[in-house]
Structures are given as structure tokens and as C-alpha cells.
Amino acid sequence: MPWSQDEGVRTLRLFYNLAVSSHASRLRKLTEATLSGESLSAVDVNAEAAARAHLDSVRQKLHAAMAATLAPSNYRSAARDPRDLQ
């Protein structure tokens, strides 16, 4: 089955898109503060770092799920289960 039709991959793609949006908004906030000359808040910097780490984690799981979907059925990984994100 193509990965685009797999329910687990579609769910992970939704999580990935949410993580991208979250990271982009955090990064935008830091960029605006930097360009305006404001001092950066440690809370904002830590939130951006956490959003980046979450984005990397979700991206890795999405890529693993896509690869597992294209592999023969006996090689499928449990990483394609969206519950791994929780």
C-alpha cells in the first residue's frame, strides 16, 4: 500500500504539520524580538528549543513510518503507530 493511503502515516503527517507550525511561531517570536532589539526571554528560548526537539522527533517518526509502509510487510516497524507520539 502506498504510504499516502496508510492511516498511521496520515496521522503522523498531521502531527508533523502541527509541530512545524508550533516551531515556526516560536522562531518568529524570537526573530521579532531580536530584530527589534529586545532582550530574549529564557522562557521563549527554551520553548523554541523544545518545539525544535519535538519537530525533529515527529519528523523522524514520520520518515520511519513512510519507510515501513513501503517495506515488505514482515519488516514493518512499530514506529508507525501514532500512539508513539504521546
What does this structure look like?
With 86 residues, the protein is mainly alpha-helical. Helices cover 67% and strands 0% of the residues. It is built from two helices and no strands. The longest helix is centred in the N-terminal third of the chain and has 29 residues, at 7-35. It is elongated and about 55 Å long.
Descriptive labels:
2 helices, mainly alpha, single chain, 86 residues
Topology:
Blueprint (H helix, E strand, L loop, with lengths): L6 H29 L6 H29 L16
Helix pairs in contact: 1-2
**Category by helix and strand content:** mainly alpha
Low-confidence stretches: none
- Enumerate how many helices there are, as a single number: 2
Q: Termini distance?
A: 26 Å
- Helix-residue proportion: 55-70%
In one word, what is the shape?
A: elongated
Mean pLDDT: 85
Strand fraction equals under 5%
Outline the biggest β-sheet. none
Order of helices and strands: HH
Rounded to the nearest angstrom, the radius of gyration is 17 Å
Q: Got a strand count?
A: 0
Structural domain count: 1
Would you summarize the structure shown here?
The protein is mostly helical. The protein has helices spanning 7-35, 42-70.
